[in-house]
């Protein structure tokens, strides 16, 4: 096995360089990339480790991926770390360990001083300590110049849209706007202005690892015109060459923006 790892260390850099050369010099790069970090548990089972080890391995792969994004000029990355459904369908002991790993991962990203952290999701559904850690990471990185990293924890696309509508209604209630008046003027921009990602560009590219080919509720509103790339690798095994393949596939597509 050692000789195989040694061979990979020699071949992968050459293959990565080849992939970079195959991306046209004038290629349009994505401004915002959404990533569904899927397959941590299956990776752990495949290599004979426990669930927690799988999530830790996945957490360790986040910072390298953000570095790859910086290399090509990406400005916003959205990482789906935990869905709102996970909060209710995971065993309590597994969920507690996963939240600890997420807190540690977000704090580690903040400690680098490189990126701006922005939590997106229903923070009110999270344990108070977890929500506080996420808010602390956001505040600590507010003035950083690096790319913006949305950490989606307790996130669900349907919940986000419902929250946006509630926020919109509450705003107009304070203005004493009647429902009839609001119905006359409301449009998609009004709702978009109340999303968790308000003020940000919609994702150009959405990547999902582990071979699954569905959105599962990720950025339902924002991804209406996104390009999608589904990768067979489990998230802990997602390498720079896999990232470059996704970017190349995006660059070579004729974007029709939903047409």
Gist?
The protein has 259 residues and is an alpha/beta fold.
What does this 3D model show about the protein?
The chain is of the alpha/beta class. The protein has one domain (30-252): Decaprenyl diphosphate synthase-like (Undecaprenyl pyrophosphate synthetase, 3-Layer(aba) Sandwich). 49% of the residues lie in helices and 13% in strands. The chain has helices spanning 2-21, 40-46, 51-60, 62-71, 86-89, 92-111, 128-140, 157-174, 179-185, 188-192, 240-252; strands at residues 32-36, 76-83, 116-120, 148-155, 205-208, 227-230. Strands 3-4-2-1-5-6 form a six-stranded parallel beta sheet, sandwiched between helices. Strand 3 (116-120), helix 7 and strand 4 (148-155) form a beta-alpha-beta unit. The longest helix has 20 residues, at 2-21.
CATH architecture: 3-Layer(aba) Sandwich
What's the name of the CATH homologous superfamily? Answer: Decaprenyl diphosphate synthase-like
Would you count the extended β strands for me? 6
Q: Which residues form runs of ≥5 with pLDDT under 50? A: none
Biggest beta-sheet profile: 6 strands, parallel
Radius of gyration, in Å, reads 20 Å
The shape is: globular
* Beta-strand share of residues: 5-15%
What structural class should be given to the helix and strand makeup? alpha/beta
How far is it from the N-terminal to the C-terminal residue, by CA?
Answer: 49 Å
What is the top-level CATH class?
A: Alpha Beta
CATH topology: Undecaprenyl pyrophosphate synthetase
Number of domains: 1
Fill in the keyword field for this structure.
259 residues, alpha/beta, Undecaprenyl pyrophosphate synthetase, six-stranded parallel β-sheet, 11 helices, 13% strand, globular
